[in-house]
TrEMBL record:
It comes from Helicobacter mustelae (strain ATCC 43772 / CCUG 25715 / CIP 103759 / LMG 18044 / NCTC 12198 / R85-136P) (Campylobacter mustelae). This is Putative cytochrome c oxidase subunit Q, CcoQ. Keywords: Membrane, Transmembrane, Transmembrane helix. InterPro entries: Cbb3-typ_cyt_oxidase_comp (IPR008621), Cyt_c_oxidase_cbb3_CcoQ (IPR014107). NCBIfam families: cbb3_Q_epsi. The chain crosses the membrane at residues 6-27. It comes from the Bacteria. Pfam families: FixQ (PF05545).
C-alpha cells in the first residue's frame, strides 16, 4: 500500500466521521428548537404546498 493511499483512506474516514457528527448535531439542534417552541418546522413543511404569491407569509422578515 502506498503512502498516498494510506493518507486517502485516513482522510476519508476522518471526513466521514466529522460529517456524521455534524449531521447528528444538526438533527439534535432542530429537535431541540422544535421542542422548546422557538421554531415550528411543520410550518415550513407546508411551504411546498402553499407557495403562491398571495398565500400567507410563514414568518415576517426581521430587518
Amino acid at each position: 500500500m502506498n503512502d498516498t493511499e494510506m493518507w486517502r483512506g485516513i482522510s476519508y474516514v476522518v471526513i466521514t466521521i466529522f460529517l456524521v457528527i455534524f449531521l447528528y448535531g444538526y438533527i439534535i439542534s432542530m429537535y431541540r428548537k422544535q421542542k422548546n417552541g422557538s421554531r415550528d418546522y411543520e410550518k415550513y413543511a407546508d411551504l411546498a404546498l402553499k407557495d403562491r404569491l398571495d398565500d400567507q407569509v410563514i414568518e415576517e422578515r426581521i430587518k
